[in-house]
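Quick one: Ornithine cyclodeaminase family protein from Cupriavidus lacunae, structure tokens please.
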Amino acid sequence: MSISHSPVFVSSDTARAVFDWKEAIQALQAAYSQSIPPQSTPARSVAAVGKTWLRTLSAVPVGGRYYGAKVMGAAMGSAKPGVEYAIVLFDRDTSRIAGLVDGALVTGFRTAATSAAALDRLAPPRPARLAVLGSGLEASMHVRAIASVRELTEVVVFSPTPEKRAAFAEAVTHDLGVQARGVASGQEAVDGADIVLCAARSRGELPILYSDWLKPEATIVSIGSTVPSQREIDASVVARSDIIVCDMLEEVLEETGDMLAAKEAGINFHDKSFSMVELMSGKLEDKLGRARTRMFKSVGGGLQDIVVAELILTRALERGLVTHLPIEFENKSI
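--- reply ---
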């Protein structure tokens, strides 16, 4: 009897059904606790012509069963432009394509889970008041991820549209049982917050967070400045931070608008910026003990996509929720 090597497909609906925040956070902490060779998780690549672009993030996690890449693309000149995400997972045991995972939700899941994984080691281990700047999907997922690693006493959200921030606060209270409210300014949201989440790019690419808004010993999570043209935090926040942990160290420091602006302002941040591996391995314990203001800055990486996609594929297979594809890729012996 021949063995079938047909791959399976995991939809976003299935990803949502099987995903678990605590499991994803723990898996990412474990992945970043190991020594990661640079070639294991290279920088993203972007191909573009005119208004059409294609981005690829790849990784071969240390110790994982699956390896692969997330591919996303958009033709902004089309009649109805949009972005689609596909994660291709290869199986180390068979050297074949094992599955295709819709990456739309996975991207949000892995970004928030990575932030929570870092925050769990950065923020003091006590109940916290959370300020949220932004009310979109990334902000929503982050609140749920952060609630998995810290008891939240209150969530205060600001976004420019009153209806959106009110709906966001109502959903937080309904889903998490945490007191939440919307406020009319970013400064009001941040006032007195133990943890500050920046999950929204500003109109006109101006900063949405300033250092004089922060209480002493605040911990900041910033995810909205991922390329040179994007801004989220003011250079004063970079200056104030005693320790900055980055998911992709070189990309964050050299290719994001926030850090380029801080460099232009003459702020020296390289000697206080560290990788996720250094954080998870315990190498920063002494520095964390002395740090008052701590920040996690993220641009996203292929390692996060593959680790979380592996979890989702594994759980979907266990629960019989995958779609078996009536295809088989040709496998060439090497």
